[in-house]
Amino acid sequence: MTETAISSCRAFVFDAYGTLFDVGSAIKRCQESLGDEAEKLSELWRRKQLEYSWLRSLMGDFTDFWTVTGDALDYSMAAIGKNDPVLRSRLMETYLSLDTFPEVVETLQTLKNNGHKLAILSNGARHMLISAAKSSGILSLFDEILCVDELRTYKPHPSVYKMAADKLELDASEISFQSSNGWDIAGAGHFGFKTAWINRAAQPVERLSHRADVILARLDEILPLTIKPQTA
Amino acid sequence: MTETAISSCRAFVFDAYGTLFDVGSAIKRCQESLGDEAEKLSELWRRKQLEYSWLRSLMGDFTDFWTVTGDALDYSMAAIGKNDPVLRSRLMETYLSLDTFPEVVETLQTLKNNGHKLAILSNGARHMLISAAKSSGILSLFDEILCVDELRTYKPHPSVYKMAADKLELDASEISFQSSNGWDIAGAGHFGFKTAWINRAAQPVERLSHRADVILARLDEILPLTIKPQTA
């Protein structure tokens, strides 16, 4: 039973971008400068950001996520024929104060009140994560903010998920991992986490070898699947 | 001088899909069944095929390229709401007899006549590459058909490019690598090959750390940059 699998978990680990933080909110704040191109830029920026993180990991040519995010933006602005250094700076800065999705704060607060350990496990650079979490008021809810800065490789490399299990001092099977990214769910499941895919955009299932234990439309749908751990 | 770099190369190694073979030709043969969705399916199929090859390499969950190609097609057909097993089979079969781009045969023939070693270095499974190369009449022009079946990881992992240098018994710097994929050029350049990016679609430069030595619009534009090796 997949729901039972999640209810027995002792820690809830969250992907950041697209799962807690609405990466589309970066573009929305610069909508007036982008007009009809806003959606295309938003989609391409995110896609290239992921591609560059995977490609650099695979090539053995790591660079931090702030640089990757800027490189992806440069490619995407070039692709829509936009050369505007001021707009570029504004878009990059929005990444440091992204909006959370509406249900995020209350979901995290409830899980914490129920005695669960909470962590972020993200490809983001530490300064990016701390800044966005502080700006949206969720930083204090987490026991750990886990990033790949020292590992020098990105998800879905198994070493990234292993770092979370090691830092939380839990077996992989005791951790429920939440992500809106199907590929991240596949990587986490392959490593051994229980997984909840927050499929906000109702996308097709990724054809990778590990499927999510549960598929939810919003993050708060995980609450009925969790139970408060018994105290001794 | 980048052109001099290529003129001193002793072997020419080619990516297959998108470089020698027109992957769009797969969809064109099934255009009547797809109508307006043809272009979207073609673009998404290719994108997911690449993503799955990178993700599986990074996760340490390799499967052969025929399976990856089928998985990517399944995702893409689901994304456009198409459930048609006969069409799926027809699309997969076209991968075994893809068209080459118009200038490919003559370019390869000229390089071979001038005494250069030629090889394919592709993520494709051996049976896929042999079938497509045989069907388009270019198989006999190559000294080596190099695929990742034994390495169990995909480009741009450095071990794939290293395999080519090892099999050709050449130093990386003596090899000119041709690909239409900017990320593949970055991986090959990072390993140490000389690189020619065949940028057929006039795409923006990928923001990865290695840039191409030359950027060409068609494969035959490499011929003026090559010289016939001197015999002893």
From TrEMBL, chains A, B:
InterPro entries listed in its UniProt record: 2-HAD, HAD-like_sf, HAD-SF_hydro_IA, HAD_sf, PGP-like_dom2, S-2-haloacid_dehalogenase
Catalytic activity: an (S)-2-haloacid + H2O = a (2R)-2-hydroxycarboxylate + a halide anion + H(+)
Annotated SUPFAM superfamilies: HAD-like (SSF56784)
Claim: Ribonucleoprotein is one of the keywords in the record: no
Source domain of life: Bacteria
The EC number(s) this enzyme carries: 3.8.1.2
MF (Gene Ontology): (S)-2-haloacid dehalogenase activity
UniProt keyword annotation of Hydrolase present: yes
EC top class named in words: hydrolase
Keyword line: Hydrolase
Family statement drawn from the similarity comment of this UniProt entry: Belongs to the HAD-like hydrolase superfamily. S-2-haloalkanoic acid dehalogenase family.
PANTHER family, A to Z: HALOACID DEHALOGENASE, TYPE II (AFU_ORTHOLOGUE AFUA_2G07750)-RELATED, HYDROLASE, HALOACID DELAHOGENASE-RELATED
Role this protein plays: Catalyzes the hydrolytic dehalogenation of small (S)-2-haloalkanoic acids to yield the corresponding (R)-2-hydroxyalkanoic acids.
Protein name, UniProt field: (S)-2-haloacid dehalogenase
